[in-house]
Amino acid sequence: MKRFLTFLLLLMLPGLSFAATILVWGDSLSAGYGLPQGTAWPTLLEQRLQREGYRYQMVNASISGETTAGGLARLPEALGRHKPAVIIIELGANDGLRGQALTQMKENLAKMITSAQTNHAKVLLLGMRLPPNFGPVYTQKFQSTYSELASEYKTGLVPFFLEKIAAQPEMFQADTIHPIAQAQPIILDTIWPGIKPFLKK
Fold it and tell me: Is the pTM of this model over 0.70?
């Protein structure tokens, strides 16, 4: 009984709130592949939230090599465990690089969005683009997938979250795919306007 009364008292204290969760659901571009620990953009986002007084905890569940099919299969368990207020979906690059069917990629992303929304999470999509050697038809359809989903399901959207570094080879590791540590603050600055409307202090 004493514990219960203490809990009620804490709830009534002015200005006290419990941290909500932001779930980052991505691939190696969000998992920090090849980067020193603590330098990937999700960690920098967590630090910015703390500096600016937002009471959110970050969960970065990104996995290198992840596809939309893998992300879809893992998502129900993660939603149940973390109950995020916001989910940032950064998937699709590996589908595109493997030349997989874009209709299936779009369906997987749509199912992730609807599953998140059913669980009362707001969704921010991080869009990607493919190199031109994949052909204009495929690359254009790939790129438009994100804007079409954002429009249909009323999600947030960052059309191309690597936009500010894509034309700068020095911002990428030797594999020419993964950004270096110095690029991570720039990536965060690109993502920040997309996530900020979802945040509450």
Answer: yes
